[in-house]
Amino acid sequence: MKNYFIWILIFIFCCKQSFAQNNYWQQQVNYNIKVSLNDTAKTLEGFETITYYNNSPDTLHFIWFHIFPNAYKNDRTAYAKQSLENGSTAFYFSNDEDRGYLNQLNFKVDNITALTEAHEKYEDVIKLILPTPLAPKKSIAITTPFFVKVPTIFSRLGFDEDNFCITQWYPKPAVYDTKGWHEMPYLDQGEFYSEFGNFEVQIILPDTYTVAATGQLQNADVLQQLKTAGKTNPENQAPYIAYQTLQKQTKVTTIKKSKETTIQKSIPNLIALTYKQENCHDFAWFASKNFIVQYDTVQLKTKTVDVFSFYHPKQTKQWNKSIGYAKDGIKKYSEWIGEYPYNTVSVVAGSENNFSEGMEYPTITLITTQEGGLSLDETIVHEIGHNWFYGALGSNEREHPWLDEGINTYYQKRYMNAKYSFAKKENSIGFFQEKILTSIINTLAKIKKGQPIDTSSAVYSEVNYFLSVYEKGSLWMQALEKKLGTTTFDKAMQHYYQTWQFKHPYTNNFKQSIESITGKNVDEHFAKLYTSEPLQPDTMKKKIKPVFIASIKNPDKYHYIGIAPLLAYNFYDKISIGAFIHNYQLPLNKFQFFVAPLYAFGSKEFNYTARAGYNIYKTKSWLEISTNAMKFTMDNFKPINAPTINQQVIKITPSVKYTLYKNDARSTQRWIFQAKSFFLTENGLLFKTIAGQDVVEKTTQSSYINRLSITSLNNRILYPYQFNLTIDQGKNFVRAGFTTEYFFNYKNRKGGINARLFAGKFFYTTDKTFAKQYETDRYHLNMSGAKGYEDYTYSNYFIGRNEFEGWQNQQIMQRDGFFKVRTDLLSNKIGKTDNWLMAINFNGNIPDAINILSALPIKIPIKFFVDIGTYAEAWEENPATGKFLYDAGLQVSLLRDIINIYVPLLYSKVYGDYFTSTLGNKKFWKNISFSIDIQKLQFSKIDRRIPL
Fold it and tell me: Which neighbouring-strand residues pair with 201?
């Protein structure tokens, strides 16, 4: 009886599988499009006829349409918003003439005018209301004219001089499948999902253009011309000869043109090119007056495939082997997966610009890499590989991008390893890059900032879109191959390809296909698609291994202790040499430390800096418990007829920092709460007279500062901001400071203006006396940027921390009022207070229109600054200064604003009087200040995409 029951279950399961296959359906959408290019106005005028077959069991009352050129219509589209989130302001600040749109639609369904409705969220999606419901197994004819203003290239659709990339350009229905409608906006990070059908497209344009397009060219004479030209040496083709002639002319004349100067001028003769392609879901075309053509064929088991490459004259050296790369890729993919699904393939080089994206389309792909050799080979093969993964296997790229990008990246890497044996060697660049990427993926997983492989494109962070979809997806495929064995794996993939060719597979269909051919349960392996954890758990007991600097090899086996030489300098210790000993490696350890012992040749002292911390990472938070310690010389004194006395400081700083993140992985906002204590032991000097002799002795004082800080920041690309509240408590005082910064981007994307507001209050915790004023002097609020002596927590790097003369004395730090002028020689500095102080600081890039230095061949990173402030004493009776102080001048910023040099040019009268009376003839040079802000080397400040 038990056996009968088992057989019944097996029978039901088999019937279920058969029933599922038999009940699969998909819509069919055939296109007939006629389009004309106006290369002067950069516009398209078209008319399309769509035959829409409803193969679903549902009656349709409407059809969602994508009109993707409207993604470039304004700065409120989903594309515009995502571009900002991904760190680009190019489109946001673009002019109207550089943007694009699609309009002049007039839909008719079976010759009956049909209405449309706007999508409630997306400007590039509309709803076509059907005049009559479309019943199952019925079809309708949909017609409409359309007009496209082609944008400057920002993403995939666009033009660059006389080079046109016409992609995602015509109105097309969204997919309707068993999961419902899949209307979606155009996104740069996130690809597409379209219905299969047959295309016939006629392109009308000036005959000075060479066109590369989806499908097979029906104009026999033009096709033959392309093949003949493609067999000609590139250096003998007209575009190359014309380009070389122009280059020679440019060298001996003053003609100034871009590197992609149009070689031929348009003439009014037009040509109509017709292309046809069956069983595809998109149509793209590229036109240029400058294309060099290469042509060959590749012989497969059942057919011969035409192979074309199109590129620009200046790319000839890099692209001269492009046809060979394409042929090799087609052969290998056909061998491993199944025969190439179409009869032609074209590879097109995109023009050199900062925005265009490489992208695959049926039978044709755009390549934007400017390199040749292995890099070009790998890129061409990857993009051609998409003819299998998404071309023939038409998965939902937007919702399940790994099904094309992850799988295709696996085959791309397999191709490179098979073709180039050295790519697999441990000392090869490719192997090193692979290790680095794997380590970064595992690091993101460890710090809870990774995302699952099978996730919608739109919710990935920018860095995870590449790492999780492409890289981790390919590693998952490698692990599947290892689990099944290469032979079985290849059979399973071939079965998947044959079963789902020209259909819309989902992840579960892929899984069922693998299991049906292998007979193995792969639930556990497929479950890894939905977790952000590492693919291989880190369970091995690791050994400690010393290495020079650091290592990425076998992080699953070793805890590396890196040892690196270290060089340091300050005015008192002079040059110090030592070692940097640490355990920083990828993936990051929860416990991290470094120790840096140093010997100072100037002070003859042994110094050190060290840190140890333990980290607890969670998806929405990061808790860091740490202790820092350091010892160095911060001043010295040379008595008469006595050795130099070195004054040192020892600092120990325990700290607890708690960082909160948003749920949204794409968010750039975070909150940071930190509590720390600074325990300081400082050397001082005691001057006294013994037996008539002046004697100087070194003393030691201990002090502490308890600090609580709260920071909120958003390092978004457009108008980033942060605010911070810091409360310091020490002996007899509490010091509170609130700082907020906001950056205003310029429209031309060349910098902007940073605004900083500071408000501070100083409190005495006991009665205020002259003695306490003197004791707390270094903690008081300053209108000017703080000097080394006033950096009471020793948190900033100063070259000569306590110098009162020389250029070292001119260093300041960003704190308090942060004026760039200094009044160091006054016993009571201007703007210094033990009450309250407020200031606002502006600094920004000088626009090229008014920057006389912008014409220089070497760009000087010059900015302006303006500071305005007030403080308590300025509001008392008979103040020594006016109620408001100001200064302004020029600023030179170097090394990503780590080093800044300030030249005050305008300032309040009270400052001018001080400079004249105190600094004398050299007041201009002595009034220059500079800052060194090493703290800006934080990961998130170096690159906004780093989630730490």
Answer: 33, 275
| Whether the Cβ atoms of residue 742 and residue 755 lie closer than 8 Å to each other | yes
Q: What is the pLDDT of residues 350-366, one digit of tens each?
A: 877 655 556 899 999 99
Separation between Cα atoms, residue 161 and residue 297, nearest integer Å: 32
- Tell me what the mean pLDDT of segment 292-297 comes to: 97
Distance CA 116, CA 114 (A): 7
Classify residue 819 by its DSSP letter.
B
Cis peptide before 587 (omega within 30 of 0): yes
pLDDT at residue 254 in the model: 42
What count of other Cβ atoms lies within 10 Å of the Cβ of residue 145?
16
Reported confidence tier of residue 942, pLDDT bands at 50, 70, 90 = low
Higher pLDDT: 205 or 805? It is 205
Q: How many CA atoms lie within 13 A of 220 on its CB side?
A: 0
Q: pLDDT tens-digit profile of 249-290?
A: 765 554 444 444 444 454 569 999 999 999 999 999 999 999
For residue 330, what is the enclosing H or E element? helix 322-336
The secondary structure of 641-652 as a DSSP string is: TSPPEEEEEEEE
- Report whether 72 contacts 188 (CB < 8 A): no
Residue 642's CB is within 10 A of a number of other CB atoms, namely 11
Largest CA distance in the chain: 117
Which of 179, 190, 229, 173 lies closest to 79, judged by CA? 190
Domains of the chain: 395-537 (1.10.390.10), 715-948 (no CATH)
Q: From CA 754, how far away is CA 814, in angstroms rounded?
A: 13
pTM: 0.90
CA 112, CA 132: separation in Å to the nearest integer? 9
Q: Do the strands 669-690 and 645-661 form a parallel or antiparallel pair, or are they unpaired?
A: antiparallel
Helix segments in 455-545, DSSP class H: 462-464, 473-484, 486-500, 507-518, 523-527
- pLDDT value of residue 23: 87
Residue whose pair of structure tokens reads 């993140």 in the numeric block: 661
Mutual orientation of helices 473-484 and 405-419 as an angle, nearest 10°? Answer: 70
Sign of CA dihedral 373, 376, 379, 381: negative
Buried/exposed 645-675: b ≥16 CB within 10 Å, e otherwise: ebbbbbbbbebebebebeeebbebebebebe
Q: Give the number of residues written for the chain.
A: 948
Average pLDDT across the chain, whole number:
92
CB-based contact 593:584 (threshold 8 Å): no
The C-alpha angle 264, 268, 272, rounded to 5 degrees, equals 95
Structure-token match 């014409």, residue found: 855
pLDDT, residue 256, reads 43
Instruction: Write the DSSP assignment of 210-272 as a string of letters.
Output: EEEESSEE--HHHHHHHHHHHTS-GGGSHHHHHHHHHHHHHHHS-----TT--SS---S-EEE
Give dist(CA 574, CA 602) in Å, integer. Answer: 5
% of residues, the chain, pLDDT over 90: 80
